[in-house]
Amino acid sequence: LSILLSLLVPAHATRSPDCGGILTPSGLSYLAQVSKSHTENVLRQDLVAPTAPDLLSGSPEPSGNRINSVKVTELSLSLVPDAGLRLSVDVDLDVTPAPSSTKAMRLSILADLHLEMTPEGNLELVTSACKPTLEELQSTEDIESKSSSSDVDKEINVNKICPEVSKLLLFPNEQLMSLTAQFPVTPNCQVQYLPLAVPVFSEQGITISLQTTFQVAGMAIPLPVSPVPFSMPEPTSSSSSHLTLALSEHFYTSLFFALEMAGAFNMTIPSPLTTAAMAQKITQMGSLFQEDVPVTLQAVFRSSPRMVLEEDKAALKLFLTVHVGAGSPALQSFVSVHVDMSAGLLLSVTDTRMTISAAAIEDTDLSLAASNVGPVPAALLEELLLPTLRAEVPAQLNEVLSEGVILPHISNFTYTNVNIVIHKDYVLVSCDLQLPARAG
């Protein structure tokens, strides 16, 4: 199996994206808002620190100009279509050029930023242009003395501000790297989201296409091939949400395939039946079991589960073989039944996890696969097994799915005001970003 998987993995690496996201202008404004206090702290450390090079003179030698306070009055991020982002920061500074006077000065930083992809496949925020300017707002000095002290060099130490300008935002590159981290689905199954290309910048927002990969027991597994290449739906300009995630039908089918490969869906189902009770319906059983013992069902997938998305509806199609038997630890099976069933699914998001839960079984088809007790009519199989399967299969599925699957996200931020809309072939998740106070 390991050799087979290793042969298949290279082909898997070239497949198309199966999910993605659009960060809207509203989301960008929120990121700017929560970066404001961080920006102020960074500038305060850089400019007020006694050991910092003199911002006003551009020289590491003190010129007598001391910056007493730093206050960010404005910070904005705007989209530059087909290019990247424009960062604009206005900072009010109180400067003491002489013991008896203070100057109020405005430091303005205008920078163009764009995203690049590193050789390791991570996204990185890079500065492409940066222009800081400084102007004097007011002075406590007398008019006469102002001209004599106006020889304060107002040039910015560009070498200090510009190389670090992207760090004025809230740890962007650390957060971007967290996007591609491995997240656990079950103890031996992990999911990872990998950007396929540099995000696209448009007036509607920043669109990123992602490829999902799963590892089972540390080995990447080849996923089912998507029948239709997935592309992010066109963003709607009317959306007030910070972020829209799109998850394709293939994404969900891959998730269930990975869980099946990890053995998460192998089910042992207790039954209210006993061998004596079943012998009353199937007479040949009397010769197999001399004592009355509990009947147990063991369900295994004979084909991978498949997620089906229609408008406003999600369903999981299950293709099981159920072995009916008794005995422990080894099950002595006397009947095997093919069971095809469809379960409605409910989707919800908490924090950054999507929880998938199976609702009622919608339809079921049973057929006899093998029997050691002669022919058994389908109607009798349904009478004996169906109530237990209808109750237990969703319950055991939900036990596996209860932890949910972590969605693509950057560290520290969670999702709130979530709205999920199911379309044919894909699911849209509209949500707002939230940075908890402790993280800020």
Automatic annotation (TrEMBL):
<dbReference type="Pfam" id="PF02886">
    <property type="entry name" value="LBP_BPI_CETP_C"/>
</dbReference>
<feature type="domain" description="Lipid-binding serum glycoprotein C-terminal">
    <location>
        <begin position="237"/>
        <end position="431"/>
    </location>
</feature>
<protein>
    <submittedName>
        <fullName>TENP protein</fullName>
    </submittedName>
</protein>
<dbReference type="InterPro" id="IPR051660">
    <property type="entry name" value="BPI_fold-BPI/LBP"/>
</dbReference>
<dbReference type="InterPro" id="IPR001124">
    <property type="entry name" value="Lipid-bd_serum_glycop_C"/>
</dbReference>
<dbReference type="InterPro" id="IPR017943">
    <property type="entry name" value="Bactericidal_perm-incr_a/b_dom"/>
</dbReference>
<dbReference type="GO" id="GO:0008289">
    <property type="term" value="F:lipid binding"/>
</dbReference>
